[in-house]
């Protein structure tokens, strides 16, 4: 029983950064903006978070610095794509390249440094429960935060007035403008939210998951987060499912490698990526779910004057 | 009609809204040139003009979407600035857009809720939709996603959305262009009720019969200027038309009597699943067109016209080769080039991006549709001079007006580009011509040229199929008429024997009887 608990905990740990980054991107895309720069924003978040935490000695400051770094980088993206109506795909790709380079620069002085991971929560009496105690009551704070975020995004998009406005703008920005909805402001806020989430996801990598900095430590998770959003048909609960599936596959392949089944390790490392995409493709196929794509996704909005 | 006397009483005070000397320029083009317009409370005022006359620009200014370069807007005598649609909404100006401003993947209730002012109670929306619906006869199901609805139902959402804000001035941009005649009648009743309740209405259209029937004032625009302000009830349709066009309206000549040839184009139980997510499936379509005749396919937009055209042109291939036959040969599995080689020709609905590539020159656009049928390409190489000669010939015969010898297609006006893409196919002397919306959004002169060319082509022995939402057009040129509804094509009826009411019922899918004549 305790082995299962240990395995499930590692699954959740692997899933959490993806979940946070993907939820942020989901909100951005539902507002009609395609930000391909998640990988870059995550990397900068990871580097800034680790640097700030190491220099200040405070994990909380590290997390805040990571979020601020993600927001700052996404603000550049917003300035270009909203202010100057540049192509969102090209700008997002450039953002990834810049972010990866910048993170290497910021983190250069911290390679080889390591620090204590942010500890898991302990609730006396509950965390010690056999079987499920640590699974339910002994995770690190980010795990609970990410789950709360999923619920909050679900509620915001489905139930709130502001969420309806955001979805409308993503669906058809021309109509939204005609109806007097603030297209640019909503998109700006959505982009900044997405940037903050990506930064936070980066902080999770460098402060919890593997508490050190190494260049390229995001290892394509930003891209997986992007794919998750699409194959989850822009639905928060499916993103949650996809992220945990990815986490599960990651852990499974680690155990498989340890058991040395004879597959090349590169094939095993690729397994979580392939499995997640295949599962989500199967889920989204056959139901004409492409209809769920926000109608204005990836197109610039320039009002007439 | 009820409320007519009440309307006269309100004529004394200042108008609800006055536009004075409105000028709007886009670069070198002056879209509105010192336009004046008055609308009174309780009045249905028509704004008449051809495409490109500046109606839409003026309306966008009145709704706060565009800022005028000069001029003044007065609301009940007071000068106002309308910086955005919210300003217009605060004054009580509502708008029903021609191309709907709806969100396809949201439900009816969400579409309406998102447009209401902040602080409105979202939970009571369903009840309010029902109450407005009842008062004006506009039934809606709040929970349905918009993409499942017909064009008429979508327009109802737009109108209910505008009415929930209790507008004092309601602008309607070409509201009947997507409606069946019966749906239009229902709309007119709603509008008259609104006017009787003291709301001012600005009714934009180029359909003159509607104006005569509904409106008590009219402003006619041409080339950005107001050319007349009149009472449409006192004017003849002919005079209104000539005011709009600026000259006597050209009418098409019927072809001289000619013999019908054998069947040249045939669809046999053609069924096809749609390519697009919100597309329409074709269900067992039968059609036979003989040489020398024009068959018109009427129908409300979005009932399968695009899919039918794609299946006829070969953009979507049929499952069975025999489902499409050209001059007696099975062509259902042929692609578009193979069908062109069988002397068929096709003009799709969208000129920019489908019939023509807007950034390519006219001669390059000639190559795009003619490369398979010879003359402009040899051994995989383009014969540029031959293509230019063909483009020049098309421009000469169809009076395509352009600034340069061989300009990019996108720089031509709608009417001129449409003449070009129709001419490009007709000059090939096709045996079969399939045209979708041949004169949509083009001026009256170009429309008359195109319609005449279609009639003449049929008279020379070709089989012509015209898909159109414009019933006037279909009655003007078709020998036989069929109606498409939800992917079903009705039997064909001789144009002389079917009336608009019957067509309207077929368009709405409510004509039950299966005719035996064909």
TrEMBL record, chain A:
Keywords: Cell membrane, Membrane, Transmembrane, Transmembrane helix. Signal peptide: none annotated. GO terms for cellular component: plasma membrane. The chain crosses the membrane at residues 6-24, 36-55, 61-82, 89-111, 141-158, 188-206, 212-232, 239-258, 270-286. Its main location: membrane. It holds the Pfam family BPD_transp_2. It is found in: Cell membrane. The keyword Membrane applies. CDD domains: TM_PBP1_transp_TpRbsC_like. One of its GO terms (molecular function) is transmembrane transporter activity. It is a multi-pass membrane protein. InterPro entries: ABC_transp_permease. This is ABC transporter permease.
Automatic annotation (TrEMBL), chain B:
GO terms for molecular function: ATP binding; ATP hydrolysis activity. SMART domains: AAA. Gene3D superfamilies: P-loop containing nucleotide triphosphate hydrolases. Residues 17-248, 265-511 form the ABC transporter domain. InterPro entries: AAA+_ATPase, ABC_carbohydrate_import_ATPase, ABC_transporter-like_ATP-bd, ABC_transporter-like_CS, P-loop_NTPase. It holds the Pfam family ABC_tran. Keywords: ATP-binding, Nucleotide-binding. PROSITE patterns: ABC_TRANSPORTER_1, ABC_TRANSPORTER_2. Belongs to the ABC transporter superfamily. This is ABC transporter ATP-binding protein. The lineage of its organism: Bacteria, Pseudomonadati, Pseudomonadota, Alphaproteobacteria, Hyphomicrobiales.
């Amino acid at each position: 029983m305790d082995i299962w608990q240990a395995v499930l905990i590692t699954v959740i740990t692997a899933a959490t950064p993806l979940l946070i980054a993907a939820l942020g991107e989901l909100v951005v895309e539902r507002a009609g903006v395609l930000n391909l720069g998640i990988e870059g924003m995550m990397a900068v978040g990871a580097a800034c978070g680790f640097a700030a935490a190491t220099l200040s000695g405070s994990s909380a400051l590290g997390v805040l610095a990571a979020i601020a770094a993600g927001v700052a980088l996404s603000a550049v993206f917003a300035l270009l794509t909203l202010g100057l109506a540049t192509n969102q795909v090209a700008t997002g790709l450039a953002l990834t390249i810049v972010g990866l380079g910048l993170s290497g620069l910021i983190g250069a002085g911290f390679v080889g440094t390591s620090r204590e991971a942010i500890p898991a929560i302990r609730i006396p009496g509950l965390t010690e429960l056999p079987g499920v105690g640590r699974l339910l009551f002994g995770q690190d704070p980010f795990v609970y935060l990410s789950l709360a975020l999923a619920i909050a995004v679900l509620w915001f998009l489905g139930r709130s007035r502001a969420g309806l406005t955001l979805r409308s703008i993503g669906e058809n920005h021309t109509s939204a403008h005609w109806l007097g909805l603030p297209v640019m402001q909503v998109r700006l806020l959505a982009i900044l939210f997405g940037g903050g989430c990506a930064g936070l996801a980066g902080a999770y990598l460098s402060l919890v998951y593997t508490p050190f900095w190494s260049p390229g430590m995001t290892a394509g998770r930003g891209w997986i987060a992007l794919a998750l959003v699409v194959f989850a048909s822009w639905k928060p609960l499916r993103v949650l499912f996809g992220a945990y599936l990815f986490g599960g596959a990651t852990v499974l392949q680690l155990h498989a490698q340890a058991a040395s089944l004879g597959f090349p390790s590169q094939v095993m490392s690729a397994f979580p990526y392939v499995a997640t995409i295949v599962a989500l493709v199967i889920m989204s196929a056959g139901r004409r779910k492409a209809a769920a794509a926000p109608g204005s996704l990836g197109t610039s909005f320039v009002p007439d004057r | 009609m009820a409320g007519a006397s009440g309307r006269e009483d309100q004529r004394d005070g200042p108008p609800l809204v006055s536009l004075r000397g409105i000028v709007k320029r886009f670069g070198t083009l002056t879209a509105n040139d010192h336009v004046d317009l008055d609308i009174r409370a309780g009045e249905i005022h028509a704004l008449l003009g051809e495409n490109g006359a500046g109606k839409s620009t003026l309306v966008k200014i009145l709704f706060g979407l565009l800022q005028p370069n000069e001029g003044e807007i007065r609301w009940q005598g007071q000068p106002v600035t309308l910086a955005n649609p919210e300003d217009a909404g605060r004054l009580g100006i509502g708008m029903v857009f021609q191309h709907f401003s709806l969100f396809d993947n949201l439900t009816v209730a969400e579409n309406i809720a998102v447009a209401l002012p902040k602080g409105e109670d979202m939970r009571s929306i369903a009840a309010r939709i029902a109450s407005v619906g009842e008062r004006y006869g506009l039934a809606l199901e709040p929970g349905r996603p918009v993409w499942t609805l017909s064009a008429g139902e979508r327009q109802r959402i737009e109108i209910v959305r505008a009415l929930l804000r209790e507008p004092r001035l309601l602008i309607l941009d070409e509201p009947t262009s997507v409606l069946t005649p019966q749906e239009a009648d229902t709309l007119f009743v709603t509008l008259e009720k609104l006017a009787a309740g003291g709301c001012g209405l600005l009714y934009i259209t180029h359909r003159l019969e509607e104006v005569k029937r509904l409106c008590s004032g009219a402003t006619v625009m041409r080339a950005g200027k107001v050319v007349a302000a009149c009472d449409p009830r006192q004017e003849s349709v002919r005079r209104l038309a000539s005011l709009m066009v600026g000259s006597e309206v050209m009418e098409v000549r019927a072809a001289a009597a000619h013999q019908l040839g054998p069947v040249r184009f045939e669809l046999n139980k053609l069924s096809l699943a749609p390519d697009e997510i919100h597309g329409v499936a074709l269900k067992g379509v039968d059609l036979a067109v003989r040489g020398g005749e024009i068959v018109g396919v009427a129908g409300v937009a979005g009932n399968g016209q695009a899919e039918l055209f794609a299946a006829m042109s070969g953009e979507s291939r049929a499952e069975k080769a025999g489902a499409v036959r050209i001059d007696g040969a099975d062509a259902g599995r042929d692609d578009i080039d193979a069908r062109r080689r069988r002397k068929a020709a096709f003009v799709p609905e969208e000129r920019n991006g489908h019939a023509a590539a807007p950034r390519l020159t006219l001669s390059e656009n000639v190559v795009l549709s003619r490369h398979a049928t010879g003359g402009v390409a040899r051994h995989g190489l383009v014969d540029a001079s031959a293509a230019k000669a063909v483009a020049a010939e098309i421009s000469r015969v169809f009076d395509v007006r352009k600034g340069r010898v061989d300009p990019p297609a996108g720089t031509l006006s709608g009417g001129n580009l449409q003449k070009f893409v129709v001419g490009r196919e007709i000059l090939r002397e096709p045996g079969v011509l399939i045209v979708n919306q041949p004169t949509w959004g083009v001026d009256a002169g170009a429309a008359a040229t195109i319609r005449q060319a279609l009639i003449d082509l049929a008279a020379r022995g070709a089989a012509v199929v015209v898909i159109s939402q414009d019933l006037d057009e279909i009655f003007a040129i078709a020998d036989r008429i069929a109606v498409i509804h939800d992917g079903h094509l009705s039997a064909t009826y001789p144009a002389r024997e079917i009336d608009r009411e019957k067509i309207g019922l077929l368009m709405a899918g409510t004509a039950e009887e299966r005719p035996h004549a064909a």
